[in-house]
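F.,

This is the one I mentioned.
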């Protein structure tokens, strides 16, 4: 199996191989030569008893000897055996890999729940510690089944408004792909959608500490905010009116000097409809507006088209701005 790399085995296990790659794996598993030693420097095998895994796989994939009278059926039997034994080998890999993941996962994340607010909906939930979270459209929050005795850690993709229950002995942290927000007890908002380059944090009450991937950090207090960009530059604290950034909880849609591209992304999440800007010249035009009481899309589009001097087409499948 000298041509079978750990990466190829992992692709095969995940069902991502091309037909040629799958055939190569099948050929190797049906062959007569013992497999090469498993490497020490690959994530798939980290923490695994590689010798035991290798012996177990080889024991199950080695084709059994056939009686002489069945020589003329050797090839079909080998092919059939290979298919069955590949499945067995994949099962062994899965068991070892699962054991590795369980052993390598911090206790706070070993058993977790994923809460998703689909596009067009918002969710309010209470965490085990009493913290209240409002999830905006198109957002995902991953939380442990139970917080540890020393920390409360959640993972966010999207936008959330949090009213953190005070617990001085267990700091509360929100982790995104680019930032870490740490608090003891406060009210704040984090926006970190994966399709947006920046992450923003605003504070309504209390204090939060924001750290980015470059190692910079700032302390925010009431009506302060920060925008984290993937450019490695120091973070700059800004004065904001935090309530404007969290008005979506009450069905109020606010745009403050947003580009049409940014407006389109918000509308797509809020109303669960694909938005296409057909005229690229207007994509950078700026828009400011405020809509209350869970506004209908038609209401927003009427104001948007008037202010931006653009046209739109709306059907069941998508919204086109031009």
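My design for it:
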């Amino acid at each position: 199996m000298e041509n079978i790399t750990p990466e190829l085995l992992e692709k095969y296990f995940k069902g991502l191989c091309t037909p040629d790659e799958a055939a190569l794996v099948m050929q190797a598993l049906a062959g007569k030569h013992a497999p090469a030693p498993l490497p020490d420097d690959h994530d798939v095998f980290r923490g695994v008893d590689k010798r035991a895994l290798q012996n177990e796989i080889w024991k199950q994939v080695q084709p059994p000897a056939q009686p002489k009278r069945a020589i003329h059926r050797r090839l079909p039997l080998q092919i059939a055996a290979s298919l069955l034994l590949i499945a067995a080998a994949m099962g062994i890999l899965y068991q070892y890999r699962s054991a590795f993941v369980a052993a390598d996962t911090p206790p706070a994340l070993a058993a977790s729940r994923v809460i998703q607010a689909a596009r067009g909906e918002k969710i309010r939930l209470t965490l085990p510690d009493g913290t209240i979270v409002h999830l905006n459209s198109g957002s995902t929050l991953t939380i442990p089944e139970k917080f540890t005795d020393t920390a409360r850690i959640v993972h966010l993709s999207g936008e959330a408004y949090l009213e953190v229950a005070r617990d001085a002995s267990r700091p509360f942290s929100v982790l995104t792909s680019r930032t870490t927000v740490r608090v003891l007890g406060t009210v704040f908002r984090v926006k970190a959608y994966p399709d947006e380059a920046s992450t923003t944090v605003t504070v309504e009450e209390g204090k939060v500490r924001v750290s980015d991937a470059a190692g910079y950090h700032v302390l925010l207090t009431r009506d302060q905010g920060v925008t984290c960009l993937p450019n490695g530059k120091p973070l700059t604290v800004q004065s904001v009116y935090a309530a404007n950034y969290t008005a979506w909880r009450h069905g109020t849609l606010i745009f403050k000097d947003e580009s049409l591209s940014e407006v389109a992304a918000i509308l797509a999440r809020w109303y669960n409809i694909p938005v296409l800007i057909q005229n690229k010249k207007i994509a950078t035009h700026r828009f400011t507006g405020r809509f209350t009481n869970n506004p209908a899309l038609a209401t927003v589009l009427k104001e948007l088209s008037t202010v931006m001097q653009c046209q739109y087409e709306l059907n069941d499948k998508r919204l086109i701005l031009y």
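The longest strand covers residues 152-163.

Talk soon.
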